[in-house]
Amino acid sequence: MTGLSAANAWKRKGSIAGEGDQGDGELRNGDNSKDVVRGAREERPGIRTLRATAHVDGASRGNPGPAACAVILSVEGFPSREIGVYLGETTNNVAEYCGLILALREARAEGVTDLTVISDSQLMVSQVNGEFKVSAEKLVPLHQKVMHLKGGFASFAMRYVPRAENARADKLTGRVLKLVEDIGT
In Å, what is the CA distance from 59 to each residue of 21, 32, 63? Predict the structure, then answer.
């Protein structure tokens, strides 16, 4: 994200959005003065809401094999960010969880309060939503980390979509793996 981070936009005094812009709202400071910040809404008294959607993906070439994860983080009122990470040798399911953990950490760092995560991993989505038990030993600590991190948001939702609807994150994961192949690491 270039320029001001979402978290800093909340703190910036005098950030006045144009009148009539959709999604603008008044924010009250401790001194009862008002700032209007693009994308801000005061829906709960005293709580500033910042919404985001994160498309996450993880993949391995072989299972286990060279793996990567990716996040497309779209914070309301700001340009979306693409983040891809090479993970080394691991399984596909571990890579999926790493993508989710990356999304949760990045969203928190940006000051997001309400997060929706979209993934094409039906297993992970079902585990995080409490529909499936986590039985694989390697996934237990990752699942626990996710459950801890998601508790830091005022609102958290996660949903499964077919791979075609998560194409941008899937493509970014593939680009990271291809880059690593090309440079021989």
Answer: 40, 49, 9
